[in-house]
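FW: tagging you since you asked about this chain on Friday. Here's the raw sequence from the shared folder, copied in full. Didn't touch anything.
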Amino acid sequence: MSLTPAWFAASLRSLVVALVAATALGATDCDAAGAVPMMPAHELGTPGRIVNGTLTSLYPSVGALLSPGDPHFATLLCSGTLIGCHTFLTAAHCVCPFTGADCQSGSNAPNPADYVVFLQHAGFFTVSSVAVNPDFNFPVGDVAILTLASAVTGLAPTPIDVTRAPAPGSAASIVGFGKDSTAADYGLKRAGAVTMASCVSGVSNTTSVCWDFVAPLGPPGTDADTCNGDSGGPLLADFQCGDTVAGITSGGTSASCVPSDHSYDANVFHYRDYIAAQAGADLGSASCGAMPQAGDPNTVVLAASGTLSSGAPQGTHTIDVPPGTTLLRVAMNASEDLGSDFDLYVKAGSPPTVSDFDCKADGPNQYGFCEFASPTAGTWYVLVQRFQGTGQYQLTATTFASGAPGAGTNGQACDDGNVCTTSDVCQSGACGGTAVSDGTSCDDGSACTGPDQCQSGACTAPAAPATGCKLPVVSAKASLLVTNDVRDTRDRLTWKWVKGDTTTLVDLGDPVGGAGYELCVFDESGGVPELASRTLVPGGAGWSAASRGYTFRDRTLQHGGVQTLRLTDGGAGKASISLVAKGALLATPALPLHQDPRVVVQLIGAQACFEARYGTNRENDGVRFKARAD
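HL: got it, structure written out here
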C-alpha cells in the first residue's frame, strides 16, 4: 500500500492509549458514533490459525517477509524473526528454491531487492543482503539471514537459542503469518502452543526440532501447528530467561496441515555458530534505538480485528492519545484470501475519509503502516476500508512515552544447572554465571567418566572405565555386535554378558523404583581409553521385576534406542545380562574401532558394574564390529 503520511508537531504525550472500534455497514466515511472499548493486545483471543492458534499483536520481533520489495504491492512470502536491529532470520527455502550451494552466487543467488520485511510495531524495511546457509538441502540447513537496509527502532530483537535444543515433552510457542489449513488467508499473525517430540519420517533430531499435531485438539492456542506462509517463523522456547528462537519453521508431513501432522523446524542451537557469523555484533543487540521498546512498561500495545465484506465494507476504530505520548505507530495486516484489498486511513481529531486523512496506505495489498512523532493529544481515528474482497484484518497500535529501553530479562537471577558456575544471571536470553575455582568437585551426570572436577566453568573428567566391575567367568561367551548403517534407522547394538560372576538381586539394585543403568563403550587407542558411546537407561517406566532380576522394554526406543535390557542374578557362571538397542536414536560408536589393544564395555548401575573386554574381533570395518570377550 502506498504510504502518504502528513507529519505535524504536537506537545509531548503520556503513554496511556485506549483503542475502540465499531463497524459501519454500507457507509463510505468513518462514523465516530457507537465506538466500544477493544481488548489489550495480550487479551485478543480471536480464534484463528497458525493452525488452531489465536490472533496476536504480541511477539513484536516476529514479522512478515513480503515480496516484491515494494511495500505498496508486496504480498506474503514467509515469516521470520528480528534477531538484531538489522538482522532478520528466516528459512532458506523462502529465498532459495535450489540447494544452498546453488544460491551462493550468480543468477541463482537471492536478490535483496525482491524482499521487504513488515513488522507490526515498526513498519516496512527493505533488504540489503541475503545469506543462505551453504549446507541447505531441504530440510537440512534450512536457515537464511537477511540484513535490513536500515535499523529497526523501538523493538527488541529476540535472542537465538544458545542453551540447548528444546527436549521432547517440553513446551514451546510458534508464531507466523501463514494460512489456515483450509483457506488461503495468508497475512494474519497468529500464535499457538506446541509440545516438542522426537522427529519422525527420516527427519534428523540433530538438524531439526519437531512436534506432533494430533487429534484431539485443545482450545485454540493450546495445540497448534504451522502451515504455508509460516515458514521461516520462530519456534520460541524459554530457558528461564525469556523467549529465544529455538526453531525456524521448515515443514511438516501433512500438506494440508491437519492432524496428524509431524512438523519440523531447523534447529537453531545446531546452527547457532553459522547464524552468529552472519549476524556479527548485531546479534548481541538487546534493544533497537535509544527509546522504549514495544512491550516495555512505558509503551502500550493495543489491538483490534474485524471482518470486511460487501455488506460490511469498513471497520471504524478510535485511539485516545493522552499527553506524554512521543510516538504513535499504527499498522494493518489482513487476509490475502481471494485477492482481498483493504486500505488504511488514520486522522487526528476527526474521522478520516478516503480523501481526508493524515496518513493513508491504499495500495493493492493487505499491509499498511503509519507513524506520527509527538502525536496531538486527544482522539485519533482509524478507518479500514474495503476496496475488494472479503476477509479478516488486524490493527496494531503502539504508543511510546519518553525514556530509555528496558533491560528485559538481562540481569535477572536464574540457575544454569551448572555446579561449576555461581551468581547465575540472564544475558541475551541465556543463563550463565561466574566459574568456580578449578578443581572443585562436580558430577557431569555420566557414570562413564570420573573423577569429575570443575575446569574453566565446566564439569570435566577423563573417559575412564570403572574399576572392580564383575566379569564373565568363562571366556569367549560375552559378545558385542555393533552395526553402523548409512541409514540410521538400521543402526544396532547388541551386548550379551553371559557366564557372569556371582551376582545377587542386591547387586542389580532397584531400577523399577530407583536409579537405572548406563552402558559405556570404551575404545582404546595406544592403551588410552576413549569413550566411543554412552547410552542411559533411566529407572522407572519400562522396568518390571521378576523372581531373578529385572527387565526393561521400550518399543518407542526413546532412551538412546534401547529396546530391551534384561538383568538376571545367579552364582558364578549363572548370572547374565543382555541389551538390545537400535534405530536413529542409538549413539552408535564410530566404526571401525581402534581396539588398540582392546574394547571395553561396561554396564554401570547404582550398586555394581558389569564388564566385558574384547582384545580380538571377528569383524571390524566401517559398518560392523563383531567380537567375543577375552
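FW: The radius of gyration is 30 Å.
HL: agreed, and The chain has two helices and 40 strands.
FW: great, closing this out.
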